[in-house]
């Protein structure tokens, strides 16, 4: 039976590492972003008898994986065993070993076997490489998450209210924060299914003021996707209203609380600056002109009732997020993997990007740094041109970057949305984050892409 074994040293006490694995959100943080997984049900945590069912999708094929936990020894080990899934057998033991009072070892031991007997053995080398690729990612993310939580261990835990928790950013941000021991209550439009869900409806103004009481912080991420479809007049109005109505409703309700939150973090975007490819832009720069700057201005203005009530408001202007599970990168990676990718238009438009895990870290950083208020540019310190981005992505994926998409094709296929998002750009710099000492994990594009796509540099 094939075996995978890996051991890593972590700068955290064994009790902290084990607790991180036990908390809600650990599974979501450990799933590699290039793997399409949807949780169906879970119960019992990692203790004996705990169960987890999820759907694993690869292209048009999806399989259900059902695992049961056993072998639980507090601060020492637990095991998950596949009861139903794609493997003939799968047994993964997580082992924890102290290394003094401030460090520990985490060992992953996996025994696995493919179905179809002898025929299945032809695929073992490929599966072994994918298992190693996934665990390389898991170990690095575990190390990063633990380090970030350790930096503010004396400042929590917090009770946090979050909107947009089911979106791309919200899912991972909530999982990260829960891994740090914080409690997340989610704003939902449907009927609540647990005490940690609060119903709201920005369109009708429904949000019980009493339900907003007692939170240490609020994170607001909800809003219709800017790049989800072409910008018809109706779609543009929806994008604007989905941001302003929800932000204003939440800010007004929080302003009425007897015990107000310490801070409100509101998602915004670097579209605030418009098309300005040459000028270095910081948080003190003036807004641009056009539809996106107008949306961002109205979006940010809608948070002012909370600010007027004395709540620290940080408006996180998010750059182009490098996420393998969604957004632009998830659409580009398959094209470039097929050898069909290349620059768009002139290729000289500037892309102000941010690694997904650094974006998660920025929200976490803003929660605990009281000097951060007003606009905060959530971008990496090294913007690149579209041509440089295309060349780097192709290199990471081991492919050529020869195709060039003409401007006319973008205009025909995507209209105004394509012109604004693909053919324009701005050189946005994270001045406030750098001044506050934010530790970027991935300040350079190549490293960010290699981590997110699971493509480490070959030695």
Structure overview:
- There is one protein chain.
- With 459 residues, the chain is α/β, with parallel strands linked by helices.
- It has two domains: 3-150, START domain (Alpha-D-Glucose-1,6-Bisphosphate, Chain A, domain 4, 2-Layer Sandwich); 159-453, NAD(P)-binding Rossmann-like Domain (Rossmann fold, 3-Layer(aba) Sandwich).
- The chain is built from 14 helices and 20 strands.
- It has helices at 14-22, 26-30, 117-120, 124-150, 168-179, 233-255, 291-301, 304-308, 327-337, 356-368, 386-396, 407-422, 431-435, 445-453, and strands at 3-10, 36-43, 51-58, 61-73, 77-84, 89-99, 103-113, 159-163, 183-188, 197-199, 217-220, 263-269, 276-281, 312-318, 320-322, 350-351, 353-355, 374-378, 384-385, 426-428.
- A seven-stranded antiparallel β-sheet has the order 1-7-6-5-4-3-2. A seven-stranded parallel β-sheet has the order 10-9-8-11-12-14-18, with helices on both faces.
- The longest helix has 27 residues, at 124-150.
- It starts with a strand and ends in a 6-residue tail after the last helix.
- The model has no long low-confidence stretch (mean pLDDT 94).
Give a summary of the structure in a few sentences.
The protein has 459 residues and is α/β, with parallel strands linked by helices. It is built from 14 helices and 20 strands. The chain folds into two domains: 3-150, Alpha-D-Glucose-1,6-Bisphosphate, Chain A, domain 4 (2-Layer Sandwich), CATH 3.30.530.20; 159-453, NAD(P)-binding Rossmann-like Domain (Rossmann fold, 3-Layer(aba) Sandwich), CATH 3.40.50.
Number of strands: 20
CATH topology term of the largest domain? Rossmann fold
The amount of beta strand, in percent, is: 25-35%
CATH architecture of the largest domain: 3-Layer(aba) Sandwich
The fourth-level CATH homologous superfamily of the largest domain is: NAD(P)-binding Rossmann-like Domain
**Could you say which overall geometry the principal axes of the C-alpha atoms support?**
globular
The biggest beta sheet, please? 7 strands, antiparallel
* Neighbour order of strands in the largest sheet: 1-7-6-5-4-3-2
Mean pLDDT: 94
């Amino acid at each position: 039976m094939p075996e995978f074994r890996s051991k890593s040293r972590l700068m955290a006490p064994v009790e902290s590492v084990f607790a991180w694995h036990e908390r809600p959100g650990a599974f979501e943080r450990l799933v590699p972003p290039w793997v399409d997984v949807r949780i169906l049900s879970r119960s019992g945590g990692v203790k004996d008898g705990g169960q987890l069912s999820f759907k694993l999708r690869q292209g048009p094929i999806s399989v259900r994986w059902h695992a049961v936990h056993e072998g639980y020894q507090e601060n020492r080990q637990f095991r998950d065993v596949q009861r139903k899934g794609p493997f003939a057998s799968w047994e993964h033991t997580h082992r924890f070993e102290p290394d003094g009072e401030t460090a520990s070892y985490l060992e992953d031991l996996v025994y696995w076997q493919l179905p179809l007997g002898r025929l299945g053995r032809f695929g073992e080398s490929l599966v072994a490489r994918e298992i190693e690729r996934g665990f390389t990612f898991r170990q690095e993310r575990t190390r990063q998450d633990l380090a970030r939580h350790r930096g503010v261990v004396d400042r929590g835990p917090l009770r946090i209210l979050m909107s947009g928790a089911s979106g791309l950013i919200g899912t991972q941000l909530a999982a990260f924060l829960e891994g740090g021991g914080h409690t997340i209550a989610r704003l939902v439009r449907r009927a609540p299914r647990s005490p940690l869900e609060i119903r709201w409806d920005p369109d009708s103004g429904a949000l019980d003021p009493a339900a907003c009481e007692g939170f240490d912080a609020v994170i607001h991420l909800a809003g219709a996707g800017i790049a989800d479809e072409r910008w018809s007049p109706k779609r543009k109005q929806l994008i604007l209203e989905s941001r302003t109505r929800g932000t204003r409703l939440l800010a007004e309700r929080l302003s009425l609380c007897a015990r107000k939150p310490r801070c409100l973090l509101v998602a915004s975007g670097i579209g605030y600056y418009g098309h300005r490819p040459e000028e270095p832009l910081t948080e003190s720069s003036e807004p641009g002109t056009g539809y996106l700057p107008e949306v961002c201005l109205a979006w940010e203005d809608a948070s002012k009732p909370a600010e007027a009530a004395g709540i620290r408001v940080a408006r996180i202007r998010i750059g182009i997020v490098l996420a393998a599970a969604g957004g632009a990168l998830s659409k580009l990676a398959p094209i470039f993997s097929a050898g069909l990718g290349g620059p768009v238009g002139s290729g000289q438009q500037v892309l102000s990007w941010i690694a997904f895990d650094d974006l998660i870290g920025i929200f976490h950083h803003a929660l605990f740094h009281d000097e951060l208020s007003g606009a905060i540019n959530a971008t990496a310190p090294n913007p690149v041109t579209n041509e440089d981005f295309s060349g780097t992505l192709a290199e990471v994926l081991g492919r050529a970057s020869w195709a060039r998409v003409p401007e006319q094709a973008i205009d025909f296929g995507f209209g105004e949305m394509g012109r604004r998002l693909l053919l324009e750009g701005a050189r946005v710099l994270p001045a406030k984050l750098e001044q506050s000492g934010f530790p970027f994990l991935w300040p350079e594009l190549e490293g960010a892409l290699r981590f997110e796509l699971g493509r480490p540099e070959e030695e």
